[in-house]
Amino acid sequence: MRYNERELLSLARQPAEKAAEIRMSVPKKGSVLKKRLVKLVVNFLFYFRTDEAEPIGALLLEHCRVTKEEENVFSISFIEEPERKYCFECATEEQCQEWVEALRRASYEFLRRSLIFYRNEIQKMTGKDPLEQYGISEEARFQLGAHRQ
């Protein structure tokens, strides 16, 4: 994926949906868990050294799998590269579950499915397409409706 480094740094400075210092390991040979500030902003998970203002890495949370591994451990792996796995250890099981849920809701895919679901529910209740008032074209409405799950 292409990105503008300056825009990415600007995004990393935005208020986070969720942030915490947790232990993390990256998918390198011999990688160990290290304390990192982890910050969720839109669909990016930034990670920082605890004493630095700029991120040392960012994960785009698309086409990934968030898995609860143990009581207080979860991982993020990517569908195209399942061996590339990031592990996170939280202080408690509750904190772990909160992170898993927040990360699963952060992707474009989840938001798109939610939009389609709520659009269909509103249409059932009112008999009207809620997107019509915004001038969404027939073609765009068809695309939204074509991917129902």
From TrEMBL:
One GO cellular component, as annotated:
recycling endosome
Name of the protein this chain belongs to: Pleckstrin homology domain-containing family J member 1
Instruction: Supply the Pfam families for this chain.
Output: PH (PF00169)
Q: Which residues form a coiled coil?
A: none
**Which PROSITE patterns does this UniProt record tie to the protein?**
PH_DOMAIN
Top-level lineage group: Eukaryota
The record's section on InterPro entries has: Boi1/Boi2-like, PH-like_dom_sf, PH_domain
- Stretches that traverse the bilayer: none
Domain PH per the UniProt entry, residue ranges: 19-108
Which GO biological process entries does UniProt record here?
A: endosome organization; receptor recycling; retrograde transport, endosome to Golgi
Q: Which gene encodes it?
A: Plekhj1
